[in-house]
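Pasting as-is:
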Amino acid sequence: MVRPSPTLRPLLLAGLLLPLLVGCRYTYLPLIPAPAEVALPTRVTSAALTREGGALVLRARVEGRFEPGYLSVAWFDSGRELGRDSVYLDAAQREATFRLEAPEAGAYRAVLAFGGNVLRQVELYEVEP
């Protein structure tokens, strides 16, 4: 039996392993995946509660995919409910402005809901709660 020289052994080993090494390559097709479709839930992207004279003004903007419906607000002074209001929103009308007459300073909260889901709470503290 003929034995290969010590200098040829690594070459012989590499030649025997070459078919295995060629099989270990990235073969997933397509190389560029299809674009992912993302359906973001309805969300309030901006909401601000401010005082304008003797009234509280809440401005809100709703983003995401949603069926047309009512954005509602519940007004609170500390733990006491002051009132409720709603505005109809659709794809063309995504912003709403709510007003509440509140001549005295207080710890006011406004809770925004759309489709029965509470989306955001905004607060305006003019006195200690």
